[in-house]
Amino acid sequence: MIVAVAGNPSVDKLFEVDELHAGQIHRPRQFVQLPGGKGIHVAQVATALGAEAIVSGVLGGHAGRWVAESLAAHGVEGRFAWMAGETRSSLSVADWETARLTEFYEDGTPLTEDEWEALESVVLPLLPRATWMTLAGSLPPGAPRDGYARLLAHARLAGVSVALDTRGDALRRTLGGAPHLVKINAYEAEELLGRTVAGLDDALHAAIEVRSLAGGAGCAAIVTAGEQGMAMADPEGNVWRGFLAARGRYPVGSGDSFLAGVLVAREHGEPWPVAIALGMGAAAANAELAGAGMLDPERARALASIAEVVRH
User: Fold this and answer.
1) Which residue range is the domain that position 169 belongs to?
2) Whole-model pTM?
3) Any idea what the CATH number is for the domain that residue 194 is in?
4) Which of 107, 134, 186, 263 would suit a FRET pair with 223, their CA atoms being 20 to 30 Å apart?
5) What's the mean pLDDT in 175-185?
6) Number of domains in the chain
C-alpha cells in the first residue's frame, strides 16, 4: 500500500480561456475544480493505476470538507486531520491560443503544532500496512520545519520506504534522513544545489549529487527536466535517462503523476527502467486531460510502452 502524505492540500481550479489578456474580463470555455496538492495527486493516480493508496493531510473548513467528499466520490481513500482554518485554493489559467499556463497558488492557512501532531497521529497507524510513503508538496505555514523529517524517521522505523518530493528548506532538512527515493524537478534541483540545471546532462549530474546528499547507496534520485525528459541515479548507482515524445496542454500535476507511476510499478516488483517508463506514461497521460491528477490508466500504459529509457 502507498500512503501519500499531502503536505499542503488545496482546491485546484482550472480556467481555460481562448486567450489571456491582462486587465480584461474573460469568459472561460471550460472550468474544472478538483482536489489538489501533490500528495493528493499521487494518491489519485496511484488509485487509477490499480494500486492500493491512502492519502492523508490536514484539511479545514468548507473547502476541506469538499476535498474529502470529492476524493471519496472518486474512490480515493483518505484519512485526514483537521484544522481550524480553511483549506487553500490554487488557480491555473490555460491560454488556448498560446498553450501557456498561468498559475496562482495560495500559501495556505497556518497550522498550530497540535494540528501537525494530529496529522502524525493519523499517519503513524497506517504505516504497518504500507510499503511506500510519499512526502509530497510544500509544508504549510506553521508546520514544524522538520515535519517531513519526523514522518520519515517514523517510516524508517516501521520498515516503510519513503519517496520525497518537496523543495527548499523542507527538502534540505529531510534529505539527511536518507529517503529511499527523491523526485524533484530541475528548478528544485537548482535551488538545492545552487547552480543551473538547464538540460538533461545537467539533470543527470544533479541526480547523482542529490543521491549522494540523500545517503548514497540504497537511495535513488530522479530529476525531471520537462519536455527534455528525466534522469535518475538508482540505489545501486546506475544512471538512467528517460524520454517520451508526447505533449499535452495541461502539465499541472504531471510530476506527481510521474511519481505515482514509478511507485505503482515498484509496488508490483518491476525494475527501475519499467518503473521510469510507467512514470513517464502517467505524466504524459495526465497532461492530456484537463485537471491535475486525472488520467486514463490505459492511455498511461500505452504511452509507457513507447517511452525510451536507456542506461547512461
Assistant:
1) 2-311
2) 0.95
3) 3.40.1190.20
4) 107
5) 96
6) 1
